[in-house]
Structure formats: structure tokens, C-alpha cells
């Protein structure tokens, strides 16, 4: 099946999924569940692309499996974190700012996630459509990067979850494990995940440059749009000493903390 046909199928499916989640949040008044649905739907998109693309079958298996496992792991983590909780402060802030137009604007905000997902899915499309397999060394490199990314993000999520589970840490700042070296190690490894598919596209000509978009887009979204700015604005209000944490600790890339 042609890339355009697969892209149209995937895009329509994502539009329907995010419309359904939007309808859910209209009733529940909690838009936070879009996060786990986004991750899982993107993992399913990887499987869809791998199934319908006519490229090298072994590469398609690697792409589909890698994207699906990433999406399910992250989606289940976010589901457990958000289900039954109050609305994420980021979305609650949007709801307050938009007032009477909140549902309408939230609908288009949710549909924007479909477009972002399609741009990120370039990481799946390009290698899945290559006719010949990449070299064994490139596949091995992709696997190493993928494992580091998934393991690192899972470890960061676990360390933060354990920290938050202790009631005595309610107003404290997590500096456990990876969080000592980065204010957002989970975001860092999320960006690394999208780098993992680049080695699988080595040798596809000019299309290799399209593979740079997913990690760059993810880093930009997390650092400039919906990730770090909103999370840190909320943390600075609720946690004493967060300004000092920001001064001494790298925002994204794990790095030894600076002296105050």
C-alpha cells in the first residue's frame, strides 16, 4: 500500500480516537486522559504502518515492535498515573483560560495531537518503506538506543512514582536517582526514543533527513510548549526551593549538578 494511503488511514483513525477522547473529557471534565491515549494510539500507528508498508519485512517488524512496546509502556504508566485523579494542572489551566469556549478549543487542541502524531510517525514510515534491510550494525545501534531510551524513561518514571508515594515528600523536590542529574530525565529519554529509528533509515537517500523531525519536534514540544514550561511553572508555585533546583540542575540532558 502506498505511503499516502497508509497515512490517510492512520490520520483518520487518529482523528476518530481523539474525537472520542474529547467527548469523554466533556463529560468527565478531565482532559488528562489524552496523554495515555496519545501514547497508545501512536504505538498502534507504528503497528499499522509496519503491517501495511511493502518494505523489508524484518525492518518492519523492528519498527512495529519498537513503536508498539514504547507506546504501550508509556500509555499504561500515564493511565495509572492519571486515572481517578484530578485534572492535570496543564489542562486545568487551559480550561480556566478558555472559559465558556473551553470545550470547543479543547476539541481542536485534541485534533492537533493527531497532526503531531502523524509528524512523529515519520520515524515509522521511512524505515518501513525501505526496500532493502539496513546493515546489521545499524540495526544493532538502533536496538541499543531503543533499549537505553525505554529503560531510562521507565527508571525515571519509577523513581518519581516511588518518591511521590511517600506522603512526607508531598511538598519536596525529587532528587532521587536520575532526577539528581536532570529536572526532566523522563523527557530526555523520550527524545532519545525517537532517535532510535534513525539508524534503520540509513541508506534511504534524502528521506533520511525526514528522520530528524521526530526527535527535534519532540524536544521542542517538551522544552518550549507543553512540557517543561507548564510543569515548572506549577512546581515553582508549590515546592519551596524549586528555583534553586532549576539553577543547579540541567533541564533535560542528565549532567552533574552545579554548585549553588
TrEMBL record:
<protein>
    <submittedName>
        <fullName>Steroid 5-alpha reductase family enzyme</fullName>
    </submittedName>
</protein>
<keyword id="KW-0812">Transmembrane</keyword>
<feature type="transmembrane region" description="Helical">
    <location>
        <begin position="107"/>
        <end position="129"/>
    </location>
</feature>
<keyword id="KW-1133">Transmembrane helix</keyword>
<feature type="transmembrane region" description="Helical">
    <location>
        <begin position="6"/>
        <end position="24"/>
    </location>
</feature>
<keyword id="KW-0472">Membrane</keyword>
<dbReference type="InterPro" id="IPR010721">
    <property type="entry name" value="UstE-like"/>
</dbReference>
<feature type="transmembrane region" description="Helical">
    <location>
        <begin position="187"/>
        <end position="213"/>
    </location>
</feature>
<feature type="transmembrane region" description="Helical">
    <location>
        <begin position="135"/>
        <end position="156"/>
    </location>
</feature>
<dbReference type="Pfam" id="PF06966">
    <property type="entry name" value="DUF1295"/>
</dbReference>
<feature type="transmembrane region" description="Helical">
    <location>
        <begin position="36"/>
        <end position="55"/>
    </location>
</feature>
Amino acid at each position: 500500500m502506498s505511503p499516502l494511503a497508509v497515512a490517510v488511514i492512520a490520520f483518520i483513525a487518529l482523528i476518530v480516537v481523539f474525537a472520542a477522547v474529547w467527548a469523554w473529557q466533556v463529560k468527565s471534565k478531565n482532559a488528562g486522559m489524552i496523554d495515555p491515549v496519545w501514547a497508545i494510539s501512536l504505538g498502534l500507528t507504528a503497528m499499522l504502518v509496519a503491517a501495511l508498508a511493502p518494505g523489508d519485512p524484518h525492518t518492519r517488524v523492528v519498527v512495529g515492535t519498537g513503536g508498539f512496546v514504547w507506546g504501550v509502556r508509556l500509555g499504561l504508566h500515564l493511565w495509572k498515573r492519571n486515572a481517578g485523579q484530578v485534572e492535570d494542572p496543564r489542562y486545568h489551566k487551559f480550561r480556566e483560560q478558555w472559559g465558556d469556549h473551553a470545550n470547543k478549543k479543547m476539541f481542536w487542541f485534541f485534533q492537533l495531537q493527531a497532526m503531531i502524531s502523524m509528524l512523529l510517525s515519520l520515524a515509522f514510515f521511512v524505515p518501513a518503506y525501505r526496500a532493502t534491510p539496513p546493515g546489521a550494525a545499524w540495526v544493532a545501534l538502533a536496538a541499543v538506543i531503543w533499549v537505553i531510551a525505554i529503560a531510562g524513561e521507565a527508571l525515571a518514571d519509577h523513581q518519581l512514582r516511588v518518591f511521590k508515594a511517600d506522603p512526607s515528600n508531598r511538598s519536596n523536590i525529587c532528587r532521587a536517582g536520575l532526577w539528581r542529574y536532570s529536572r526532566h530525565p523522563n523527557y530526555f529519554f523520550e527524545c532519545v526514543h525517537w532517535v532510535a529509528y534513525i539508524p534503520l533509515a540509513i541508506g534511504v537517500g534524502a528521506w533520511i533527513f525526514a528522520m530528524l523531525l521526530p526527535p527535534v519536534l519532540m524536544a521542542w514540544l517538551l522544552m518550549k510548549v507543553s512540557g517543561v514550561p507548564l510543569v515548572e511553572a506549577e512546581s515553582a508555585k508549590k515546592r519551596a526551593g524549586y528555583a534553586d533546583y532549576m539553577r543547579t540542575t540541567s533541564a533535560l540532558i542528565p549532567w552533574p549538578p552545579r554548585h549553588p
